[in-house]
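Reminder to self: keep the SMILES exactly as supplied, no canonicalising. Ligand is fe (ii) ion.
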Amino acid sequence: MSLHGATKGTKLEPISDMLAKGEACGTMMYYALARLAKEQGLEDVSEKFIEAANQEAVHAGFYATANAMYPKDFWMLVRGIMAAEYSGETTIKNLADKFRAEGLTEAADEMEIFAKQEGHHGEVMKKILEEHAPETLNDEGKTIYVCGCCGFEYVGDLDAEGEEYICPICGQPKKVFKLKA
Ligand SMILES: [Fe+2]
Ligand SMILES: [Fe+2]
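Structure tokens returned for the bound complex:
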């Protein structure tokens, strides 16, 4: 039996929601601690934090699945994520320039690596789609909305989504989406 939606619409929904968000925060915190530990030369401590972070990430995904935060038939979602990852490369590169302008040279250098990684994620998503769901890459005649915050692309009728719809990647509300030119 799939875990998908097991707690959605039940009294467990708010619990899964709370746990999903809490675990996602924990992931962020542990990676930050891993970084700080590494800066202090505590490599082994850093690795332990990373191990904990990865487990927290698994937990977050578990509760998110139980609450059906992402569609079970996820190909169209991946199609939208691909677009966000590709546009993320430019976005992060531009933001790295801002860090550089403020004298944060080393941080900016690292962000440029992150930018390339975003582009690579886009490539990976594209390959996955080509191999498993090539039809989702055909945009002909489809209406596409772009998230003004992260570049996620919603393919289809966004108006059919409820007012509570938020960008699956960055969590911005429906109103930040614009029709793709
Ligand atoms: Fe990414
Ligand atoms: Fe977004």
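Points to follow up:
The chain has a mean pLDDT of 97.
The longest strand covers residues 144-147.
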